[in-house]
């Protein structure tokens, strides 16, 4: 009897917390789909606002996707060799570098952006291009890639596998691409999904670095909330969710894949 | 299969960062086609020696590694033409059994037909037919080590290196794989160096055994030499059980007085102690005994039993007896020893130079 009461209490508390977090999201989504939010659902459902967002902000969505893909490529190209280097180097060094890598995550994005502006703001071409934002995104997301890859590399017994490959005649390149990369794949996958998600949602750094011509999705979202009808901002949120939720599900799935390997 | 090659280490030492000496300057020659076992307790330098031969580690300045006439000291492992089997298998988890075995062949860019032919050949040799498509994590420990073995011999290496390959397996499987590896090595005729801390494995597989102790070779010889003529107390004790009888005095006719009686051993004059193996001591009626004592403990081992006999010496003698006979504690027992089975290491110190220690 007692345990049943406890179970009921726990369940209701959990449901309450869920509601508390889900209701605002659901309301926002509904707002993006209703004709007039202040009138309510009676005014009817419509895709008009979604369409309008697309008209107004399509370029921000494309820029965000472009940034995310470019950011992913760069973090893989830098992050995977970096993780491998950390794996092979001595502990003291490795720890110091790992902490250094985490700095852009710990420091507020605004401060990072400010530092970038101070250092490179005078190069007008660069400052005005999307590449400037890309630098910010790479700084912010790189540690996530390195950590994900490194943790998989550490459990994969790579040094032994490499020795075995070397004994069979494989040179460094053959070992790296034939043994190291395939056995770190789950880490690279987990890191990649993380990087893409973070890059698409990044606001702090981007808001400081953007120009009217280089707005990303979250910056556009802030813009629309500030200056447009509430329905448009909500429809914008809806589009963002459609892009990001599948990525989050994929992160979960990649995480499971990694655990199975161990 | 391949032309085998001799291995010569000259003055190979190894000092690790921090000043730890893993290996004293070492000279070692492995004949072409021979299986040499490096035997010793952990930390004796046997694995370091193997890694220097393999090229995974370099000797300190001044050391030299020759494969036949060829100086390979500066070559990394991938250029040395060796096959290596590791204790933890080190199989590639991202590849199937067949892909693991064929890995070295693909690195050599052999034609497809040749790869298929060799794959077939080695899987038959290690008795893994039909396992080609399996995932590595779907194999048992013994099967994994067979795959590792097949992978190492598929490339037809000049030298085969084994780093405690059976240490992770359970006893029964270890015995079976040991026999199979022995057959395989004889069949292939490849020069092999085999590291282990297990004396049974060393005896069964080694044409010669190098017993190592704290970074030096304590003795190098055939299993028979190592067992019957150990160079010092450490070797005698490490390989099998050994009894040490203190010599209390010498009689005019040359007999050695030991606790519990006396022994005839004209070849062992002037020593302070003599050694013998438990299985070399015979049990005889008390009236014919050279040495008399009392059984203080009997340990049943199945095939035999081990008796501990107190003769008044510092430690009880260990004796091997037939397992069906009963020896209650306190029973008087008579023992005899032929001169042939008594030995004494000439110099009870460990010396570093293998050539000085080599018999025959």
UniProtKB/TrEMBL annotation, chain A:
CDD domains: TM_PBP2. Keywords: Cell inner membrane, Cell membrane, Membrane, Transmembrane, Transmembrane helix, Transport. Pfam families: BPD_transp_1. Signal peptide: none annotated. It is a multi-pass membrane protein. It comes from the Bacteria. This is ABC transporter permease subunit. It comes from Vreelandella neptunia.
UniProtKB/TrEMBL annotation, chain B:
The keyword Isomerase does not apply. Pfam families: ABC_tran (PF00005), TOBE_2 (PF08402). Residues 7-239 form the ABC transporter domain. GO terms for molecular function: ATP binding. PROSITE patterns: ABC_TRANSPORTER_1, ABC_TRANSPORTER_2. SMART domains: AAA. InterPro entries: AAA+_ATPase (IPR003593), ABC_SmlMolc_Importer (IPR050093), ABC_transporter-like_ATP-bd (IPR003439), ABC_transporter-like_CS (IPR017871), Mo/tungstate-bd_C_term_dom (IPR008995), P-loop_NTPase (IPR027417), Transp-assoc_OB_typ2 (IPR013611). It comes from the Bacteria. Keywords: ATP-binding, Nucleotide-binding, Transport. Gene3D superfamilies: 2.40.50.100, P-loop containing nucleotide triphosphate hydrolases (3.40.50.300). This is ABC transporter ATP-binding protein. It comes from Vreelandella neptunia. The lineage of its organism: Bacteria, Pseudomonadati, Pseudomonadota, Gammaproteobacteria, Oceanospirillales.
